Amino acid sequence: MKTVSDMMQKVRVTCPLVHHITNYVTVNDCANMCICAGGSPVMSDAAEDVPDMVKLASSLVLNIGTLNPRTVESMLIAGKKANELGIPIILDPVGVGATQYRTDTAWNLIDSLKIDVIKGNHGEISVLAGLGGRVRGVDSESGGNEIGEAARILAEKTGAIVAATGEVDYVSDGETITELSNGSPAMGSVSGTGCMLSSVVGAYVGACGVSVDSVVAAISVLNIASEVAVNEGKVYGPGSFKTKLFDAVYNLSEEDVDRLIRRK
Amino acid sequence: MKTVSDMMQKVRVTCPLVHHITNYVTVNDCANMCICAGGSPVMSDAAEDVPDMVKLASSLVLNIGTLNPRTVESMLIAGKKANELGIPIILDPVGVGATQYRTDTAWNLIDSLKIDVIKGNHGEISVLAGLGGRVRGVDSESGGNEIGEAARILAEKTGAIVAATGEVDYVSDGETITELSNGSPAMGSVSGTGCMLSSVVGAYVGACGVSVDSVVAAISVLNIASEVAVNEGKVYGPGSFKTKLFDAVYNLSEEDVDRLIRRK
Amino acid sequence: MKTVSDMMQKVRVTCPLVHHITNYVTVNDCANMCICAGGSPVMSDAAEDVPDMVKLASSLVLNIGTLNPRTVESMLIAGKKANELGIPIILDPVGVGATQYRTDTAWNLIDSLKIDVIKGNHGEISVLAGLGGRVRGVDSESGGNEIGEAARILAEKTGAIVAATGEVDYVSDGETITELSNGSPAMGSVSGTGCMLSSVVGAYVGACGVSVDSVVAAISVLNIASEVAVNEGKVYGPGSFKTKLFDAVYNLSEEDVDRLIRRK
C-alpha cells in the first residue's frame, strides 16, 4: 500500500492534465481545486474538440451536473477515445435518481464506456446499486449502514472503483470496503464540494493510476484539508470556509495527511 | 403580516429545493447564496431533464442572463410543468430592453406562463412596465421617482408580484407599493447580486408562499446581510466583500433583521 | 505616450461596456475583474442576441476557452457587427495548438474578422506565429527568448496588437516590442488569470482606444495589483490570493502604477 503522502508528492511533481466535461455551476471551483491539489485542469466539451484534448490528458472526469444531449454526446466521444488510449475515466453521476434523464444518462455512460472510478454521494451510489437511495435535486438524503455495501455492489457490477461520499466515505473495488471518516461539516455548506472531489480524484488517478489507494488519497486530501481550514480559525461561514479550503489543499503537508487520516 | 424573522426560520427549517434555469456567469454564486439563505439549489436546463426536476422543487427561478433558444425552450417546458403543479415561478428578466431578443423572450415567458414574481433592476422593470427605462448591457441606468409606480403597473398588468431593485427597492402586488431601503453600495461592485437575490426570493417564496411579504423578506435578508458584512470590518474591496456577504447571509440573526429592516 | 495612470482614470470615469463571448469556466471572474478594473461587463452568446448587444459595447472580447459550434458562430456574427461599427475586438485564443478545432477556430476568427488585439500566453502566441510553441491543455509550456519576436511576427501578419503573457509579457504592434516584467508567481496558481486579463484589456481598449499603450496599461494594472495583493500580506494560498487580487485591482492607486511599472 502506497501512503497518501507518497501519492501527494507524485501528483504535485507530475502535475497531471485532467480533462473535464462537467457542469457550469461548479466548474470554476473544480478548475481551481484541481490546481490546488497539484493537477492541471482543462475543460472542453465540444464533440469537435474532445477527441484531440483527451489524448493529452492523464485522466477524464465526466460530471453530469448540468447535462444536455450535446455534452452527453461529447462525453461518449471523449470516453471512447480515453478507453482506446487507456486513459482512466472518473464518472460523477450528479443527481442520478432525481430524474429519468440523469438515470438513463448515467447508465448509458456506464454501459458504453469502461469507467474506472464512480464517485457519488450516498444517495447516488445507492440508486445506482439498486438499493433505492433517495436523491433530492442533486443532494443526497440517504445514509445508514448499507452505503458501504452499496458501493461494493456497484463496484462488482461495473468493474469500477466506487466511492460513496458523505459524513463517512466508503471506497470499494467490489471486494474490500474502505471506510474514511475525515472531513468537516462545513463542506456541506458549500456548493460543489462533491464536484471538486471528482477533480481531485482525476488528478490522483491520473498521476498514480487506478486503485483504491488513489481514490482514498484524493478523498483524504480534500477532507483533511477541510479540517485544517476550520482548525486554523478565521472561518466564519461558507464564504470564508471556501477561500480557506483552497488554501488548505494547496498548502497541505504530506506529514499531516499521514498523521490525520482516519481510515479503516 | 408575518415578520421577516418568522420567514427566515421557516426557510432555514424547511430547506426548500429551488430549481434554477439561469445564466452561466453568476450561477455558482446563486447556488451558494441559495444555500447560505437556507435553501437547496439545483440547476438543470435540458428539455429532457427539467420536467422531472421541477416536480421535486419548491420553486422555479428563470433567469435570462445568458439566454439561448435551447434554454428558453427549457424555461417554457419547466414553467408549464410548474404551473400545472402550482410551483411558484420567479422571473429575473436580465438585460430586458438592452436587446430585442431579451425583450421578446421576457414577454414570451410572461405571456406563456403564469409568473408569480418578477424581480428586476429599476431599468428592467421600467422597460417592462412600458415607462421606457434604460438598460445598458445588463445594468440599470434608470432611477427617479417613478420606479415604484412602474413596479405597480407591471404587477397589475401581469398578476405577478413585482420587485424593482436598486438603491431603494420597491415591491408591488398591483395595489400597494412597499419601499425598502436597506443595503450597501458595495453590492454594486460585485457581479450578480441581482441574480443571487432571485435565488433567495426562490427560497423564500418556495418555503413561505407567494406574497409581498416573502419577497420583502428575501430582499431584506440579502440587503441587511450586506450591511452587516460591511459593518463587521475587513471588507477592503469587492473580493473580500463577496466572501463576507456569503458568511453574513448564512449567519444573519433573525433578531437583527427585524431590528434593522427599513420598510415603508 | 499616455501614462498608465491617465488611462486608469479614463477607464474608471467612463466605465466602458465590455461584451464578452467567453468560456463558462472563468466567466464569473472575468465579470468581476472587469468591474474591479472600472469596466462594465456583459456576457451574451446567442446568435439572436449578440448583434444587438455588441452595438451597445465599447469593446468585444472573444475567448475560445470552451468553444463550440454555436458560440463560434455567435463570435463571427458579433465580430462582423463590431467591425462594421468600429468597435474593437480582443481575441483570447485559449488552448490554440492543443487541438485542431481550437487552431482552426482561432484562424477562422482571425481570417474572417479584423481583430484589434490578440492576447495569449507564450505557447499560444508562438503557435499562432508559426514558431511551434507547445500548448498543454490550456496552459503554456513555452518560454525562451523568442517570444517577443513571436508576438511581433503575429502582429505583423495579422495587423493586430499582440500580447504574449507569461513571467515576462511582450506587446508588439508588428514593429516595436515592449517588455513588461511585473506580476507575481501566485497568478499561476489561480485558474483564469489570463482570461481576466483579456477582460481588463477589453476595458482599457474600450475606454482608451486600440494602442500598444492601452494593452500595456491593462497588463500592468493586473500584474502590479497582484504584487500589491501579495505584499499587503494575508495571502496564504490561491484562495486568499484571488480574493485579494480583486480588492487590489479595485483599489489600485494610479500613482503606484506609474511608480511600480517595469517596462522596457
Share of β-strand residues of chain A: 15-25%
Q: In which order are the strands of the major sheet of chain A placed?
A: 2-1-3-4-5-8-9-10
Q: What class do helices, strands and sheet pairing of chain A give? A: alpha/beta
Distance between the termini of chain A: 13 Å
Oligomer description: homotrimer
Mean pLDDT of chain A: 95
- CATH fold call of chain A: UDP-N-acetylmuramoyl-L-alanine:D-glutamate ligase
Q: Considering DSSP H and I runs of 4 or more, what fraction of the residues of chain A is helical?
A: 40-55%
Gyration radius of chain A, rounded: 17 Å
| Largest β-sheet summary of chain A | 8 strands, mixed
Write the element-wise H/E pattern of chain A from the N-terminal end onward.
HEHEHEHEHEHEEHEEEHHHH
Largest interface: A-B, 32 and 32 residues
Describe the 3D structure.
The structure is a homotrimer of 264-residue chains. Chain A is an alpha/beta fold and 264 residues long. Helix content of chain A is 51%, strand content 15%. The first copy, chain A, contains 11 helices and 10 strands. In chain A, the strands form 2 sheets. In chain A, strands 2-1-3-4-5-8-9-10 form an 8-stranded mixed β-sheet, sandwiched between helices. The first copy, chain A, has a two-stranded antiparallel ribbon with strand order 6-7. The model of chain A has no long low-confidence stretch (mean pLDDT 95). Chains in contact: A-B, A-C, B-C. At the B-C interface, helix 5 and helix 10 of B face helix 2, strand 2 and helix 10 of C.
